[in-house]
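Data availability excerpt. The first of two example chains:
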Amino acid sequence: MAYWLVKSEPDAFSWDQQVLNDVEPWTGVRNHMAKNNLKAMRIGDRAFFYHSNIGKEIVGVVEVVREAYPDPSAEKGDWVAVDMKAICPIPKPVTLAAIKAEPGLEGIALIRQSRLSVMAIADDHWQKLREMGEWTA
């Protein structure tokens, strides 16, 4: 299993909407590196759901339930989408400020490549972020 972080602006698509919809296509990615990350996702992979712009915090966990397919929202190009299923909220949302202050997390893409909307998370970083969010499931 691989781990990821996906970002969404909550005024465009929020964690609450993800939960309400249960399974949702992750569409609209228009960055080649993020697209390649979507293509690398496999069924069963988990991702932190991060509210960007407003809130700037990890608020939930989703699971990939359908691997990359042509993004129906793309008018042209080889953009892809994956389907994500809501798993659970993070008991204690993990803010960007807390992530930046945590020793050992300074190398994650969320800090190094702040505009990237889909990024891989190393196993040890996933575990540390789980601890910070008090998610034990």
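And the second chain:
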Amino acid sequence: METMTIGQLSAAAGVNVETVRYYQRRSLLAAPQRQSGSIGRYPISALIRLRFIRRSQSLGFSLDDVGALLSLDDGQGCAAARTIGEHKLAEVQQRIQTLQALEAALTTLVSQCATKRRKVRCPLIEALMKTEGPAFQAEG
């Protein structure tokens, strides 16, 4: 079986060596096998696991979620993994709704800025200056 040093592992996964050590401290990645007095060597499975962690994070999963998903990787935990995925999906859908509302408000405010040249205070700046209510509440 091919093995790698921590430097080779981190380079292959595109992460910093300290990231690998951090994941070990978080128990997301096992410590390397060591012969007495030798450099630790990681199996290919460590690279696969490290890539899983990074991919999961890029999808918005927290390290706690990643740890839970990794603990369910026994072929029996699909229902629990689905629950974690559904929770993340609900969070993403909520963020999308929030961003769509922000997009609509900014579109309106930017449009108002283009039509109200120097006659009144800039609507975008005025919306950001508000101390009460949502900062980007589009006014009709």
